[in-house]
Design brief:
- Helix 1 packs antiparallel against helix 3.
- It contains seven helices and six strands.
- It has a two-stranded antiparallel ribbon. A two-stranded antiparallel ribbon has the order 2-3. Strands 5-6 form a two-stranded antiparallel ribbon.
- The relative contact order is 0.16.
């Protein structure tokens, strides 16, 4: 991720304490635009399926608080995307079944993507969004970067994460897709509301 070019921005280690609120203020605008971009794709009946920091474009000035107003991060590289057309989009909560051969995102992919069976592309995108948020906040991955570990191991908790942020990751990193957060649930989460200014940040995030 960067201005025009790839490469994830690193924000410290998951082993060390970190001032969470200032960090979230820098990370959230990027992640929010990604989530809203994915939400629009899903509304059109399309899953991205290759979400990762390298597939996000930041316009010049995006990370400068004095210039950022009105600027938006944008998704790119739709070579792995899969769509079922507008019919799927008109059915709220409908799954987008993706053939098992349609895979992408590597270390950012959900456990079901490497299962060899058809999977819900919308929920696979949600998992990838969670991995990206975790990586932006910690500079590390929540799981070892191999399919077996992603399928079987729990995500790495971080002691300086707030309860609302931890709860968000718990909802995103459900191994069972049917129990995983949707994009809509992410946007209704307490952590999203606090970062978006909908509700005051919790005391533990200051």
């Amino acid at each position: 991720m960067g201005q025009r070019e790839g490469g994830a921005r690193r924000h410290g280690s998951h082993h060390a304490p970190c001032p969470l609120l200032p960090l979230c203020r820098r990370v959230f605008p990027v992640w929010r635009d990604m989530v809203l971009g994915v939400e629009h794709m899903h509304a059109c009946g399309v899953a991205h399926l290759d979400l990762k920091p390298q597939n996000v474009l930041l316009p010049e000035g995006f990370l400068d608080e004095d210039q950022a107003a009105g600027l938006k991060a944008k998704l790119c590289d739709f070579s792995h995307s899969y769509g079922a057309g507008p019919t799927a989009a008109r059915e709220p909560g409908a799954a987008l079944l993706v053939p098992p051969t349609q895979v992408g995102a590597g270390r950012y992919m959900g456990p079901e993507v490497s299962s060899g069976e058809a999977y819900d592309g919308f929920l696979a995108d949600v998992w990838s969004l969670g991995v990206i948020l975790y990586t932006l906040l910690t500079g590390a991955l929540p799981f070892p970067p191999d399919p077996e570990s992603i399928r079987t191991e729990p995500w790495k908790r971080v002691d300086w994460f707030s309860p609302t942020l931890t709860a968000l990751f718990e909802g995103i990193f459900s191994k069972e897709p049917a129990q995983r957060h949707t994009v809509s649930a992410i946007c209704k989460s307490d952590w999203w509301g606090a970062q978006n200014g909908d509700v005051p940040p919790a005391a533990e995030e200051e």
